[in-house]
Amino acid sequence: MVAIFLVFLYTLEYGNISLRKLSLTGDEDADLGSKLDESSSKFGQEDGEDDVIPKSFPVCDDRHFELIPCLDRNLIYQMRLKLDLSLMEHYERHCPLPERRYNCLIPPPAGYKVRIFLIFVCLFLADPNQVAKSRDEVWKANIPHTHLAHEKSDQNWMVVKVKRYFGAYLLSSDIITMSLAPNDVHQNQIQFALERNSCISWNQTVIWQKPLTNGCHKERTPVTRPPLCRSDDDPDAVWGVPMEACITPYSDHDHKSRGSELAPWPARATAPPPRLADFGYSKDIFEKDTEVWMQRVESYWNLLSPKITSDTLRNLMDMKANLGSFAAALKGKDVWVMNVVPEDGPNTLKLIYDRGLIGTIHNWCEAFSTYPRTYDLLHAWTVFSDIEKKGCSAEDLLIEMDRILRPTGFVIIRDKPSVIEFVKKYLTALHWEAVSNERDGDELVFYPKEDMADK
């Protein structure tokens, strides 16, 4: 039997954190981590079997309001890691060991505002009396980094005005862009894009078109740099492997097809991807998976519709995307989905990109490389069961989900009943609330409700 658990995260007291604050540096991190590790539980345990559930998680110190655990410069300094700066290793992921994790809830910055209440004119609107959409501006209090607007002023994509930020976007052209940036002095430009509910960010523009075949590669001289990758190089090995300065040529199949097998958008989202055969999947399996998730997403949306307003949901994440059918089922909605593929499972990420969607590889035993308060909805299909098999901490995953979820954001957990019962024990500690139980065939469904009285 599979269970669905839908929870709602209600808003903290923005800018007025009344819970106990901790100054977590140095060895204090390990002290707190070891205390909470003692409360770790396994799914399916009976009450009283060594499952001490905390009544509340502490709130982190205010200065950690932008903490990205695996991109934390303070951790690098504290651990005295010997990194090669010439190779930019200090920009790579360096995750804390369990005993050095903060294990506390990340607070929002002082004055943080939920974006759906934004009302001001967009930079590109001619009528100053029109109400701006949240993708056109960002509350200054939500990302208090005015220096970036000044440094990027010559690019004309961001200005500071009346304590708000404005920016350009491509979403009106039905284009979704995956944007990457190093964790350097300009790191917050990605945070601006995410706060504006898009995954794009402007910078100096360079346009390059990749060739359709290996023709030009075959004409290269042996001394041309960068060289072609070795024939035994695995282009799909992307997690925990060093980058190599080489160009991956097309496979014989892709070279011959010249990209002609991809359906045009938006049909591409539901058409069988040309590389299905790489995974041994048939078109029937793909179409059945697409139909199943169409039905599930329709059920989710019908459930959430009475509880959301316009633009409440914009940034979504599918924490175990598989073939990407969850995101494909939402293509008619005004949302975008970050599809996450587990690093130790079938690397279906190329199928997701074949469908015109975006995504990344990740290991949910570690923190995700994004800012706090990024996503409006997290969808976790058997993610907790997966990390249990790895021996990782479900409590750590819950705290990480809380970190990347926006205040008033939603979570949908679809998993076995013992997982659902486990998560329910942590609702109070996480400041989450779930109400109503329903059965849908063999599935147990939990529905959320926002507790406005606690805001």
Brief rundown of the structure:
The chain is α/β, with parallel strands linked by helices and 455 residues long.
Explain how this protein is built.
The chain has 455 residues and is of the alpha/beta class. It contains 13 helices and 13 strands. It has helices at 27-37, 73-79, 146-151, 188-195, 215-218, 252-257, 283-304, 325-328, 349-354, 383-390, 394-404, 417-424, 427-430; strands spanning 3-9, 21-22, 59-60, 137-139, 159-161, 164-166, 315-318, 336-342, 358-362, 375-381, 405-415, 432-440, 443-448. Strand 5 (159-161) and strand 6 form a beta hairpin. The longest helix is centred in the middle third of the chain and has 22 residues, at 283-304.
Q: Largest sheet, if any?
A: 8 strands, mixed
The value of Rg in angstroms is 23 Å
Percent of residues in helices: 10-25%
| Class from secondary-structure proportions | alpha/beta
Low-pLDDT segments: 10-40, 116-133, 156-163, 448-455
DSSP helix count?
13
User: Which series of helices and strands comes N to C?
Assistant: EEHEHEHEEHHHHEHEHEEHHEHHEE
Q: Give the total of beta strands.
A: 13
Q: What features would you highlight for this structure?
A:
23% helix; 13 helices; alpha/beta; globular; 455 residues
Question: What is the topology?
Answer:
Layout: E1 3-9, E2 21-22, H1 27-37, E3 59-60, H2 73-79, E4 137-139, H3 146-151, E5 159-161, E6 164-166, H4 188-195, H5 215-218, H6 252-257, H7 283-304, E7 315-318, H8 325-328, E8 336-342, H9 349-354, E9 358-362, E10 375-381, H10 383-390, H11 394-404, E11 405-415, H12 417-424, H13 427-430, E12 432-440, E13 443-448
Parallel strand pairs: 1-13, 2-3, 7-8, 7-10, 8-9, 10-11
Antiparallel strand pairs: 1-11, 1-12, 4-6, 5-6, 12-13
